[in-house]
Design a protein that fits this description.
The structure is a homooctamer of 207-residue chains. With 207 residues, chain A is α/β, with parallel strands linked by helices. The first copy, chain A, has eight helices and six strands, in the order E-H-E-H-E-H-E-H-E-H-E-H-H-H.
Chain lengths: 207, 207, 207, 207, 207, 207, 207, 207
């Protein structure tokens, strides 16, 4: 009953960003556009901050799905980038799986568009192959709440752990003292109320 | 722990459309009428597109429940059609189960009205008999969100996988290259934002 | 994996109505008052219609919690009626458990106020003692949606099946032909859209 | 106090469809994509059915805003079509206003994307020039409910009448007997529950 | 600025119930079916209780719209009953307007299905002719909240007063002492929480 | 067009608290019980803090409606207290109106249960007699959002100003320097986030 | 009846940003923190882009309310900045009103925290003095939707026009050709779906 | 299948209150501030009432996160109080775990801010070490409903039981007769509708 807690570890985690493309994102309706953009970039910030190997992939980026959002491309210029020629499930693309396995890591942090397909399918495959999978629910979007919750149920039943970008950041950080200023900067950019707390604090303690 | 991923396969799947009748649909309140109609027809489009054996059934169609919606009848003129004389659970009707077993397929894709009865009961029976069952949550409707979520919980606990019509389509397709134009047409009819992406793309690339 | 489907059976089911009291009901905020009243009486109608043994219990009915709603008392004049002197968990009251066991039935259909206490506690005890428990989610009310969903999660994890009064009615009925008019009358009283379908049907076919 | 009721009249009404473009529609978040598409096409159906002069206009259709949705272009091949070179408020475009005035009609039925700009600005101008303006709220979309309701308040305060496509259809029709079958067909295409009523009716009365 | 308060008066009010038909009610989605049924019957209860002249009308009741809901017919067997042969706006039917004027009353209490058409059109006509119009918002239903709120705005701008069945009852009653038991009975039937208060009160004071 | 701004003035305002009774409050469903209790007591705090004459009234407090909530009685032991023998509209009770007029004040701040009756009726009467009326929307409760918004529309059309307890407090205070600590204490009791700001501030500046 | 349309004009408009302080913003609950931050900064972008005179004011910024959010201070380093010593209504501060009048402009664009106080009070005063006031609803925040809508009603009744930052931008711009790239940049920063359209467009037309 | 029901027991339970700090609470958006404050204090009331050992901990309380809310400090002056120097997961702090183990208790009742981090991380660790963990969902807050539900799923999958403060109170109390007045007082302070029931009861039975 008491299985060990599968805890994210920055030395064993790899981040997969799947199909965050300029066209596909118009399908996302379970988050407002501003919330979703902020969450996706926040997860990317975490990948950078913790130096996690990160893998980018797109589906038909030369068609209506559109290119990867340029911010992600810019943040990870040297990351493996797999423009899939047709496979809907990224796990069906050999290069993608190879790139993951090449990292030697067993903890997969995944987010994408849309949740029920581009996230769920590789999640189910990765679990089957023995990876631990951490789905970043708030950086993954889809058509509506019914589809979101059904996809969550399918992935949960298969053993995926549901997380959000903030809990990913905190579990990887472990202790504020590892880099207090770095984490504070990241949170200040992505959580307006946290930024406000910091600004109030600075103002009050400066007196 | 790492059981194989139960993945939909167009050679092993059969579609059951249960009690989408003109009267019963007025009971559906967990989707707007337009969303529900679109989702049901989209699932039917998938069944056609992938040439899946499809089985139609109705409950008391000569009474207030009303006839099957004519679009479904028209789309599947040669499908087994079981007008049940009284069994609420379609699985209690021998002809219905025979029709399923005659297909030799073990993956059941099911949708119907209402979710907690016409979908849940045969789902629980099919799971008991060893079928894999994929419930299409957005093509199945019921009284309200409380009933929907309770029915989902009951079916999930018994091993059903919750999906939506779009993830069914994508899992069956596997690779866009299997028939890019066909799938694009299907999505264009049923997902307005996808249609808009395609039309923008055509306009821009025509220049 | 393929455990038998636990299906409600009118010869093996007993109904527990827990603490539907005139005062306590003012705590229920996860349903509107009209919806909740209708659902509770619909479940009571089912108990009557299928001649299920039914057990009533109240908590401190002489205090602010108030008496059992009179409609329930009137519908089940001969049912075991346990006015608990203090036990919050009805299962802690020997008379209540004795009354259940006296029926010899192993399927418990339970509803009450509030879901997280008066329903959840006896549900967890009954499951522990080997009963099958079917929680009627829409005839059970509590403070808000967060509490409702947390209570559902706790009961589901322990093996309870979540249902609603309509799916209880349908699973017990099995086949419309067992008593078509009786069930139609019941549904007509409690589901306005069903009543409308019947009235339209009568009008149209009378021509 | 008792001013005459400004009632839509098919001999005095003109329909303005403003900026329903494939790109801009991705900004609409106060309706689901399916609902919005259905409402816009339903309003177009009304314009056709009542032979109302209809004027189409777009904003920068050669840029990211995208082309007019093809269905509208196809439905009104001979309608004045003003591709505005830059004016955000269509009323600032002389050709647009000329086209309206050329119809000699004083009742403007308007819908567009986005409500707070493309609908509100010409509405306020038209009211100022003495037109009666009927805003079709459900065929006009914008960013969210706050923006929608603020735009409604601004237009209402200036004398616009808020309507929806169905009430436009009914006010123009006046009497079912003017063309019962025609209106029934239109409603059957756009209101699934109405279609179901008709199909139930046909089935029942055919007996 | 200080115009006299237009207060409902049981000697000057007439009730119009417009198109509460078994088919049309399936279009109502801005209230749950149970809430809507309860509200409509509660308004009818008020008309009976205060002996208000009541006029019933239907639209094409021999077609898919279906018959008037039988409860209303049964409650007002002697009321003027105008089955309109085709006019969508009941005010366009001479018999309907004659029946209203025959009562000699100037305060119109109106409810119907759907709000934006069957309620709004006669409301606007009646206001134009100098009647005071009190729209019973919760006994009038339509497609969704957007349509509801747009229809409210149009009617309010024209001078209609928005009410609900409970405020109609209370304004007509004026003083509980006019018939305390009668009003209490009415409220007990239609407001579950009020019924519970009464039952708790009876139980406590009986001690 | 530019009428003077009707601004609350602590020397010209009187507070009316209408029917906040232990039974009637169970009818309030447009606020959660905790929010509503907090808002009502906050408004009472304001009346105390600004020394506004305050008038309490109840409807049938010896019946199921129950007594005035004890907190209000305790806060205003010397306030005029009119237990109405039967008038639903408090303005129909001579003692109530006399008590208001005895204050010589022309600005009425009113809140009560339920909004559409106990607040709306006296509001409409007071406006008719030339008072300025400020309805405290968040200290007034009723059955649901539809009823709330309809009542707001009726009162707004008659000239009432819609406010909330916080804006009442701020408009009466005018300048923080009139009694900074007093107002801060009041807000700290009733607005948890304000309390947190103050506590953070104290902690940070104490360093 | 046909009063001239009050249209924003960049030569006659002044922007007031009231009390967007790091502490006070924690009171805002009618927008998510991300949406609110984005909207406020978007409005500030507009003020910069159109070179509108802009006036900043704060309430007790040395206390728990906290300093002005630093972004606003940084964007408008030379703007009049009135740190009010105690006046809750900024219009009660002579320096603030002087600063507005010094601009010689008659169109006030206002936003602030909280809507019902810091926005509503100066809005009502400005209207009384003959200014045209345009309330930017989505850059103004408050406690909840009830308070928001009540504040809107009070301001609308007094003649304020409700807008949102996007409609402000579009009405001031008038014609895209005035500075297409500038406006496109602004929208791309603040509307993720617009940014996506632009990025898709660039990708497609680059081919 | 029938594992024993893990029932809270006041002799085996310990309460952990994690990071309810004046700054951090501004991040909580899945409850209104009033509801959240009430729930947290209600849970603290339970800890006091049942004399449960209670452990307080904070994260960086000298920084922007702010101090523990003073009410909690005041209620548990002698409780172990661990101001963590940097560990995000309280379980990573040896003093915290030692304090728990020093109680000798195996049932952990936990609540905190934010749910997905400060509650979820120690919950997962405690489960791994064999504790039974009862998460008090309504005294734990986070960014939004998506994050809340994802965190619930992760904790449930690991074996945590989801509860709410009221069910914790009731399960610990067991029987009203253990201290009827004490529990009644607690509920009266925290559940307004319960308080109203008690006050009505007292008034009615005093007659």
């Amino acid at each position: 009953m008491t299985v060990p807690y599968k805890r994210l570890n920055k030395d064993d985690a790899v981040v997969l960003l799947v199909d965050h493309q300029t066209g596909l994102i118009s399908l996302v309706q379970d988050f407002t556009p501003n919330e979703f953009k902020n969450n996706v970039l926040a997860l990317a910030d975490c990948a950078k901050f913790f130096n996690l190997p990160t893998i980018l992939t797109t589906s038909f980026e030369t068609g209506p799905n559109g290119p990867l959002v340029p911010e992600l491309k810019a943040m990870f210029p040297d990351a493996p980038y797999i423009a899939r020629p047709g496979q809907i499930n990224a796990w069906d693309n050999e290069d993608f799986v190879k790139a993951i396995k090449a990292t030697g890591r067993k903890q997969i942090i995944i987010a994408g568009v849309v949740t029920d397909v581009c996230v769920a399918f590789p999640t189910l495959c990765a679990l089957e192959e023995g990876f631990d999978v951490f789905v970043v629910t708030d950086a993954s979007g889809t058509f509506n709440d019914v589809v979101q919750k059904a996809a969550w149920a399918r992935m949960t039943a298969a053993g995926a752990q549901l997380m959000n970008w903030f809990s990913v950041a905190c579990e990887l950080q472990g202790d504020w003292r590892n880099d207090m200023e770095g984490l504070a900067n990241l949170l200040s950019q992505r959580i307006p109320n946290y930024r406000n707390l910091m600004n109030s604090y600075s103002a009050f303690t400066a007196k």
